[in-house]
Amino acid sequence: MLRFSTRINAILGLCTTVILSGCVGDGCGDPTERPWCDTSYTSKERTSLLLNEMTLDEKLSLMQGDDIFGAAIGVPANGTSKGIPRLGLNTVYFSDGPLGVREGNATAHPSPLAVASSFNPELARQVGKAIGNEVKNKGNDVIHAPTLDVVRIYTSGRVFETFGEDPYLVSQMGLQWMYGIESEGIIANAKHYGVYTQEGLIGIPNIPLFPGALGARFLYNAVIDERTMREVYLSPFEVLVKQGGLDSIMCSYNYVNYESACGSQRLLTEILRDEWGFDGFVLTDYLFAQKDTVDAIHAGNDLEMPIGIHYTRSKIAKAIANNEVTEQDIDQRVGNVLHTLFDHGVIDRPNYTSNDDAIDKEAHALVAQQTAEQGTVLLKNDNLLPIDLGKVNSIAIIGDASDSFINGGGSSAVFPFRLITPREAITERAIAAGVTVNYHDGNDLTAAADVASNSDVALVFVATSSGEGQDRTCLSLTCFEEKLAGQDPDGLINAVAQANSNTAVILETGSASLTPWRDDIAALLQAWFPGQFGGPAIAGILFGDINPSGKLPLSFPESANDTLYANNFSRYPGMLHRGPKGSLFNVEYDEGVMVGYRWFDDQNKAVAYPFGFGLSYTNFSYSNLQVSGTLPNLTVTATLTNAGDRTGSESAQLYVGLPDISLDNRQPPRQLKGFERVTLNPGESTKVEFSLDARSLSYWNEANEGWEMANGCYQVYIGSHSRDLALNTALPFEGAQCE
């Protein structure tokens, strides 16, 4: 569907608005009449010329979005910033999101957790490129993605939008995703800067404007030390800014150390711009992220979305009249937006038009299917998988999740162009092989168990709900929200497993979950939210067409009591504490850098399934660890061999153990610092190679306000996951002795 104004133009053969040089959305115009349209000038020179021509009212109009309804319905876009026809400025359209375009129908990609599970940065680039192409062909200029939040709370409602719990993995996958997006002429708007880890408890699921009341994202204040903030939560943003040239960032709803994230001089100017060299524009998350007018202007926030609440023309004009801000301050804010639009060619070209026919739906569906194939993680297999259709007579498919489109809510609620469910794909394959398929929706546990008991193999599909605005109430599959809907995923698995020893469970969930029944089943697949072609991908793995290769980007705890926030309300959801400018909850990040698998390792806690873990239908072995170079610049290599009888892919992982700074300022036992995905034929070997430098071996020294290497012994590990590191060596630094 074309945008309304474009369609009217096509019908009438004229412009809906004619001012001097032409139509709204036609591009900058004639440089002889508009000097800022001369592309021989730099973007900042052009911006200066343009600002000199603009009235104050026109400048203020560019500091706020102009459509509150698009965020809810996606029409004409998820966000809109109206242009200025007099000056040749196009209207700028903003799109969600991390799983695909939330505007009409689109290719529904698997969740970013699935992308991260592939441990394949090239796949992340392909996904970004496919989504970027659809963003463009639906007439948009900017996409609110990638999500660079590092997972701290496994029950947080938006975990599925992230790339996991490790900052290095998040940064590498997010960087390539951004490259893919921007290869299509779209501006990536990375989110949520800076320490955004929860939605809140006791809210209305998937209704973003009614967030969880306890620890609500609008109201919580992250009380966090500088080291933890730098090493964990800001690290992915720094990588995208410094290595990728990221030009747009979304500031988050919450507060950080008693400052609004969208009004923090520390975050938006001192760190982001002055230290990292960020030269783009900052916009707010939608509604209520910005807390004031004057502080936000001085802090470095450029654009309030989706409409102005604090950046209204009247409020800013009043601040200028009261000498709280100057027009030069306004020029800086508006100039950041304009020169970025010049840099990316948005002002010089006509608006992209919305035309679904220009989208290569088949090619994008293939990318979505490949992501599901590479991102599905085999967690357990007691010789059940792959299923040999020549050796079974009947298969039971249990659970309505097998016949549904499972996806997250809020900014990731994508409506697929086409859907092939697991039930459809499995049934088609089985019937073609002469195998009977028995189906039950799983709502009656006794009846489901009866169906399973009369089948050779039982495939149980279970799903949980996750979405923006509301955290899950527990880490189990069966929480309050499932009980409220009359569902009992844990009970269904138990009932079927008791009825059939050949039971495989397929989880379509948005985060890590508890698996208390895992010893009673024969196989377990973690499929995340698998996208529109998750069906063929899951079927391909179950029947052996695809060798599973996914690795967990999250740890799966043994018990809910083992998490860093268990029975600790100060860590989550936070304690009531009336702070400045509206914060109501203090959330203490006093676990420091011990987040995710680092926490479990530091506490010597068992996990059900560790970070980086994933089984295959073949076996891999590691040997011949070699380290060359001199600290801190090292090259680490090892030999990886496919020791099994099937072709398969393995993601070799490099971890480093840094020496403790002091007894009170310790390092995680191990940190991921490299990974490489390779595909090998049976018996084939290859060399995997990793590079380490001073930054990858450093910690943030708060006293000196900089990155430093600690004196001591550095441990280097290579293996298949965080708790299976077959190769290791120790390297002394600054004369230290290694045992």
Structure commentary:
With 739 residues, the chain is α/β, with parallel strands linked by helices. It has 3 domains: 4-214 and 224-357, Glycoside hydrolase, family 3, N-terminal domain (TIM Barrel); 376-546, Glycoside hydrolase family 3 C-terminal domain (Rossmann fold), CATH 3.40.50.1700; 616-733, Immunoglobulins (Immunoglobulin-like, Sandwich), CATH 2.60.40.10. A 6-stranded mixed sheet has the order 14-20-19-18-15-17, sandwiched between helices. Strands 12-11-9-23-22 form a 5-stranded mixed sheet, with no helix packed on it. A 4-stranded mixed sheet has the order 3-4-6-7, covered by helices on one side. β32 and β33 form a beta hairpin. The protein is globular and about 80 Å long.
Topology, element by element:
Layout: H1 4-12, E1 18-19, E2 22-23, H2 43-53, H3 56-61, H4 70-73, E3 79-81, E4 92-95, E5 105-106, H5 112-117, H6 121-137, E6 142-143, H7 167-182, E7 187-188, E8 190-193, E9 220-223, H8 226-233, H9 235-242, E10 248-251, E11 255-256, E12 259-260, H10 265-275, E13 281-284, H11 294-299, H12 313-321, H13 327-343, H14 361-375, E14 377-381, E15 394-398, E16 415-416, H15 422-432, E17 436-440, H16 445-453, E18 457-463, H17 480-484, H18 489-499, E19 503-508, E20 523-526, H19 534-542, E21 556-557, E22 575-576, E23 585-588, H20 597-602, E24 607-609, E25 620-630, E26 633-642, E27 648-657, E28 671-680, E29 685-692, E30 699-701, E31 706-708, E32 712-719, E33 727-733
Parallel strand pairs: 4-6, 5-16, 6-7, 8-10, 9-11, 9-23, 10-13, 15-17, 15-18, 18-19, 19-20
Antiparallel strand pairs: 1-2, 3-4, 11-12, 14-20, 21-24, 22-23, 25-26, 26-29, 27-28, 27-32, 30-31, 32-33
Helix pairs in contact: 2-13, 6-7, 6-14, 7-9, 14-19, 15-19, 16-18
